[in-house]
User: Fold this.
Amino acid sequence: MFEFWNAVAEQPLARNAVLASLLLSMTCGVVGSYVVVRRITYIAAGVAHCVLGGMGAARYLQTVHGWSFVHPIHGALVAALLAAAVIGWMSLTSREREDSAISAVWSVGMASGVLFIYATPGYSQDLMGYLFGDILLVTRQHLYLIAGLNVLLLVVVARWYDAFQLVCFDEEFARTRNVNVSGFYILLLALTALTVVALSVIVGIVLVIALLTLPAALAGRFAGSLAQMMVLATILCALFCLAGLTFSYGPDLPAGPAIIVIGGGCYFVVAAAGYLRRHFQRTQ
Amino acid sequence: MTAIIDIRDASVYYGTTPALLDVNMTIDSGRFVTIVGPNGGGKTTLFKMLLGLVRPARGSVRVLGRAPGDARLSVGYVAQSPQFDPLFPVRVYDVARMGLIGADNPGRFRNRKSTREKVLAALDAVGLADIENHWFNSLSGGQRQRVLIARALVTAPAILLLDEPTSNVDITAEDKILDVLQQLRNHMTILLITHYPKVASRFLDLVFCVNRTVHLHPPTENIDDALMRHITGLSMPGTFPKPATDSCHV
Assistant:
């Protein structure tokens, strides 16, 4: 079971995996808490799947048309921000049902990604990599990317913690306090999109969604404030990542799915315990 | 007395559907105004117009002598049955403190002492200062409503707008909320939307009937069930009891 920690002592890539786990835990703890309390996990998942379209298109342009200056992360960034803008605009102004609009953006983004990947010679095997990533292949540049995103998040949260909390808690009252509700909603979607891009190129799309939602949803059951929720979600996220790495390394299993199963298992156990507790309180 | 709210010939439309038509209303400082009328009659739209959240297509609205958007921070607002995430992690103190956002700097470190004094004074006014550290979502419906009233009071507003504050609470909680309003009526102008005769009759000062148009109800000693049904059951504009005055200037 402890092969991974032996590898950490000897291999830079294993050390990078630990550092990446700790850094992305903070990202997911902060952004995930907002995503969960504002109930936009479905939007985050839609944006994450659109990233596949951007990555696929960038890889296609790079390989088939020789646009060497285009990297998959550029495509991911454009796709994520575009998806966030479209969903945000539809949510704020359109008369479309929000969930239908998100489903349309989600499915079109992902389907176009699959088409681009299969149209790119020699890259069809990349699909699983984009979906689940590999946290054991994190480079130093990736670590700098997440560290930079964390600095940006800390600045934004420190500056607008109260306004974000009010917008997430009670939009209507926020408007009466002269808070720019639409502006903060778009900013939250943009931060979510940036987080999804930065993390999906490292750990894959599915793991990003899991780490944005599961630790924060669990933390929300025990925290007394949004700030406490962020700290607790960061700790839980780090524990899930390190446990996933620990248990998957020895038997040579993929780390991403192991992390998701551990986090999801904890979530279901706590949710079931909460249900049983309420049930017994009612029957007594 | 000074007119604190002055609405002249104001009409509000949602798309092409009229919500309020040619509203005239002048309210002087210190009055307790009860607003009654059928569902969909425009009562909440009237409040949103006073807060500057909805703009009239024509006519003028002045609140405290200013445009509604400019006076917004001097107006406390308690919305009708707001829905909250049952798992949102927030304590009573922090909900009340939200009222200072925009009006003051409620920073966690700057102005901390004065912020705390204001928040505790507002919670004390509704009788909940002793549960400031309780989780908001662990409270009863009546307690939550009183916390939301404290949130509206924390800036010491000149006007308090309450949109059906006693809906969805039991009789005991209703009595406590009404007791709080009884205390507050000496300190500010209060506009209260209600469907309940008991509530309307307790604060008999001014009663406005809102159903697209706004009329001042004739002064009466009591508003009973039959009268409330008469007021709220008439869905077509123009079928209200005749206004006491044409301009509703009080």
The first helix of chain B runs from residue 43 to 50. Helices of chain B lie at 43-50, 68-71, 92-97, 112-125, 141-153, 171-184, 197-202, 225-233. The radius of gyration of chain B is 18 Å.
